[in-house]
Amino acid sequence: MGADAILLPDESNRATITFDLLQPNDDEPQMHFGAEYEYERTVALRLGYKANYDTEGLTAGIGLQTDLAGLHLLFDYSYGKMVDYLTTVHRISLGVQW
Predict the structure, then answer these.
(1) Which residue has the higher pLDDT, 6 or 53?
(2) Which residues, 6 or more positions from 91, have their beta carbon under 8 angstroms from its beta carbon?
(3) For 8, which of 13, 47, 70, 77 could close a Cys bridge (C-beta 3.0–4.6 Å)?
(4) CB 50 within 8 A of CB 34
(5) Of 83 and 46, more confident
(6) Contact 74, 59 (CB under 8 A)
(7) Using an 8 Å Cβ cutoff, are 65 and 74 in contact?
(8) Cα–Cα distance, 57 to 50 (Å, whole number)
(9) Phi, psi dihedrals of residue 83, rounded to the nearest 5°
(10) Pairing of the two strands 30-39 and 14-22
């Protein structure tokens, strides 16, 4: 299953809602729910949930992008809630496109 983008009335903002279903051979079905709101193609706010996992659950994040000196710069941060081992996971990625 995939995502559907929803353009908001001013067309410079975008909202996306997604759902994914995974059926492992040796476990119960796992579901992923997610939503993203993108403002002016510059800032993206993200929220998600992983259902039917032993240790994972809530996820959230932010993405930033801009053009600078002919380069397209990207920054992404995400937070994940884990129950037993790490309690929380923080991920950061940086990207450059030219």
Answers:
(1) 53
(2) 61, 76, 77, 78, 80
(3) 13
(4) no
(5) 46
(6) no
(7) yes
(8) 5
(9) -85, -55
(10) antiparallel
Secondary structure in 3-state letters for the chain: CCEEEEECCCCCCEEEEEEEEECCCCCCCEEEEEEEEEECCCEEEEEEEEECCCCEEEEEEEEEEEEECCEEEEEEEEEEEECCCCCEEEEEEEEEEC
What does pTM read for this prediction?
Answer: 0.79
Rounded Cα–Cα distance for residues 34 and 48 (Å): 4
Taking the C-alpha atoms of residue 80 and residue 91, their distance in angstroms, rounded to an integer, is 8
Distances from the Cα of 60 to the Cαs of 7, 9, 24, 64, in angstroms?
21, 25, 24, 14
Tell which wins on pLDDT, 3 or 21: 21
> Do 33 and 57 touch, CB atoms closer than 8 A?
no
